[in-house]
Every structure is written in C-alpha cells, then in structure tokens.
Specification:
It comes from Ferroacidibacillus organovorans. By secondary structure, the protein is an alpha/beta fold. About 50% of the residues lie in helices and about 15% in strands. Strands 4-3-5-6 form a four-stranded parallel beta sheet, with helices on both faces. Strands 9-8-10-11 form a four-stranded parallel beta sheet, sandwiched between helices. It has a two-stranded antiparallel ribbon with strand order 1-2.
C-alpha cells in the first residue's frame, strides 16, 4: 500500500492507491480484519490529497474489499464471512434480533414472528414490483444501459430520452404520470425538473467512469491511434471529458458516430485500439481484421447515488 505512486504514467492516483491495497490483500501482506490507516494518515504518507485516498477507500468498500465502521475505522473484509468486525450481514442480523426480541415481548411466538415477517417481506416485494420508475438521460447509450444497471429488488426502470421528454407524446406523458420516482443525472437535474414540474419526485445520480475501464484505457500506449465508436456526439463528449479528468488527454482519440456499416469497418481498420459504447464490443470486434484492443467505456452510478435511490424508494412505502 505504501508503494511509491507514479505521477506521469497516465493512471489516476486513486486507481494506483486502490491497486496497491488490492495487491497487499491478495498477497497476504494485509490480513482479513486488519485496520487500515485513516484517510489523513495515508494521504500524508503517500503525499497525495485526502480525496485521492477517500476515493480509493470508497471504491474498495463498494467492491466488498473494505468495510468502514463508524467510530472505529476502515478494515480489510474477511472474504469467508468469518470476520470479527461488523459487516452488512451482521448489521442486518442485529436488526432482525431486535425485532424478534420486541416481538417476543409483545407476546408473539418465534413461529408467529417468522410468519408475519415473511408475509410482510412478500408485501414489500410486491410493492416494489409495482413501483414505476423513469430514468431520463440525454443519450441512448446511457439511458438504456443504466436503466438496466440501476434495477434492483424487482423494480423495473423505464428509460426515457431527454429529447423524448421535451417532445412528449401521449405515450411519454402517460409513462411520467404513472411514475412514482424520476431519476436523472446531476448534469440534467435542473432541466428535467423544469420540464416535469413539481408533480413527481426527481432524484439525481452521479455517474462515474468504471474503474476498470479507466485502467484499460490508461494502458494504451500514447503513440497508438485510438478510435471512439458510439451513437451520439453527446456520449462521445462525456467519454472525452472523463479521459481529461483522468489526465489521459495525451491520447489521440478520433470519434466516429456514423452508423453505416462500411464506414464503421473502414474506421475500425484505421485504428490501433478502439473504445466503444456499452454493449457494442462484440459488434465492433467482428469488424477487426487484425488484433486490436476493443474497450467498452462503461459509466456506473456511484455508491452514494445508489444508496440515495434505495432510500427514496423505501420512502415510497410510507406514503
């Protein structure tokens, strides 16, 4: 974890910090249950900002490598569930224990508690299934991909393009009227709220480039010709902006949004490596006549956004 960071290799510092911690865990240098330095301590030790360490810790926590316990610190998770520290399963068990104890005090038997809890869970599951959620974004690649990515617990999310919202037909208006919740990105929050008014609750999520995607792109030699193939200029702009934020702007990236098969084939043949929008890797690989690296550029909602969405959906149960 204390391995010196390389500042001019194109790989973001937080990615290097994360990879160093992962390496320590996989090699056994860091043991399950071991406490890590605080964000401040590690940032001072490595000579980076605290935000850099915080991002690395958050990503590792989302991946189930670390667990953060309020008031105690950050620890290496036990991958075999024999960890001595609290984790999500432990916390849920404690909640159930409290509910069970209160149920017994109210005069219910354990069997009655199990029956009531099971029926209540089934009711909640049915309610979740009936919840109508709409995800609004400005480009087809992201709106379809993230509508699938954000689904959980049986909730179905209907994708809707921002342009479709602006020119809303009866179909789009009907979808919005039935929606219990509308999701968009922070970039479009104000515009979406203006378009739909105050009739529906709007939740904004933050979409970040997937860590693995950035690492793959960072490994492309700078002298290589890199082609970006996607359906919209908007998505291309988001990818190029993400590369700039990751300090990978020295890569020379050419953009191709034309859907014509022959022009796509010709463009693929002129590039050394290819970046493609989600779901198009196999399609583009079929055009490759030589060995070319094809990378899907994937954005994902951050952990805080997913937790916020879960909380908003839970709140619908109480109304």
């Amino acid at each position: 974890m204390d391995t010196a960071l390389i500042r001019k290799n194109g790989i973001p510092l937080y990615v290097q910090v994360k990879n160093n911690i992962l390496s320590d865990v996989q090699s056994g240098v860091r043991k399950p249950g071991e406490q890590l330095p605080t964000e401040r301590e590690l940032s001072e030790r490595l000579g980076v900002s605290r935000n850099t360490v915080s991002q690395a810790y958050q990503d590792l926590e989302a991946d189930g490598i670390l667990v953060s316990i309020q008031g105690r610190g950050t620890f290496i998770c036990d991958r075999d569930d024999k960890v001595r520290f609290e984790n999500r399963r432990d916390l849920l068990s404690k909640v159930i224990d409290v509910a069970l104890e209160e149920g017994l005090q109210l005069g219910f038997s354990i069997e009655e508690f199990v029956d009531i809890a099971t029926k209540r869970a089934q009711q909640k599951a049915a309610l979740l299934h009936d919840v109508q959620v709409v995800f609004i974004e400005c480009n087809r690649e992201q709106v379809e991909y993230f509508s699938r990515k954000l689904e959980f617990g049986g909730i179905h999310i209907t994708p809707l393009l921002l342009e479709e919202l602006k020119d809303a037909s009866q179909k789009e208006r009907s979808i919005l009227e039935r929606a219990r919740l509308v999701i968009t990105t922070f970039f479009h929050l104000d515009e979406v709220q203006q378009l739909i008014g105050s009739s529906q609750q709007v939740i904004a999520v933050s979409l970040d480039p997937e860590l693995e995607t950035i690492v793959k792109v960072a490994r492309i030699p700078q002298e290589k010709r890199v082609g970006l193939i996607c359906k919209s200029e908007n998505f291309a702009g988001k990818v190029l902006n993400a590369l700039r934020q990751a300090r990978l702007e020295e890569l020379h990236v050419s953009v191709h949004t034309d859907a014509d098969a022959e022009r796509v084939r010709a463009f693929v043949g002129s590039q050394d490596a290819l970046i493609v929008s989600p779901g198009r890797r196999r399609e583009i690989e079929a055009y490759c006549k030589r060995k070319q690296h094809v990378i899907e550029f994937v954005f994902q909602p951050d952990v805080a956004s997913v937790n916020l969405l879960r909380a908003a959906l839970a709140d619908t149960f109480r109304h």
